[in-house]
């Protein structure tokens, strides 16, 4: 072959290689999610200056879930995309939902309250799209107001109450004195705690409502007022093992430890608490999730972040296992017996078929250390010990 022909042949091969490498790859199957949140109320400033003001709670968990999903999806010709919408206090939830749908969102992760979430479920634009509840603990959403397209990755109040009740039963702290706040949320939580006491053989020896408006941060000398008020408020309570606080909005409960007239542990929403996630949790590989989240968000992961992460990861796990992004195939797998998601809680998490609540272990923690994890040893269930937390199938009013 002459030098000229040899050059042309080599050049043709190179050109051919260059052309072939420039061919577009197969377009990945896209799973588009929308995160729908709401602005933090102006009156919900943290009680302690040690607690950061969070304006992205829940959203950052969804973002991390997208990142974790795509780490695997890239090898399966899949891609996860997240669009975000935040509703102002008193804003139009339906308009925000419509905006996400216009951007192609086929799955919705909600960080909304129960009232706003019910608006979303009733909105005609939602169609047959699935909504993951990552923010509202209300049992009614798993009961009378349940919906076949609504899934819950945040635990219900009843699940949290049962988790705490099991630990108190393990400790044989069976007499509870209950103090609850004057908000609707606190009254509902108090009812859930009393139901847990009845379920596990505890006794609420007395209950009292904290009568004051939300405490403002005390000026100099305020500590002396607290030291006078709280001992008087609880001084004539019947004999009890623990002082149980129901204060979801963190208005007054943090003042009770070390201020009671009798030396009793403070448990409930302050002191020793039951929670889906905690910054001190590091067992079962949880430290890896904690570090990934801190790198992304530059802060600790909260229970709401964890719930949003679980929602996004549920889709990632289901699409990866089925090799499909089709809605019905994904949901069939997600509700099937084979579905198990590693939630860094010691046991795999999965969805209950009768109300779509994610069954999950619950951490029992102090301010800086995990004390235990429920379900506790000895609390059995014919299906799984995880179903000893929250409303069981036979007692659930949810009917799809």
From TrEMBL:
UniProt keywords, alphabetically: Signal
Domain of life: Bacteria
Region feature Disordered, mapped onto this chain: 376-400
Keyword Electron transport: no
Acidic residues bias: start-end ranges: 390-400
Keyword Aminoacyl-tRNA synthetase: no
Xref: InterPro entries: ABC_transptr_sub-bd_PQQ, BCAA_transport, Leu-bd, Peripla_BP_I
UniProt domain Leucine-binding protein: residue ranges: 59-208
Family of this protein: Belongs to the leucine-binding protein family.
Protein name: ABC transporter substrate-binding protein
Species this protein is from: Halomonas kalidii
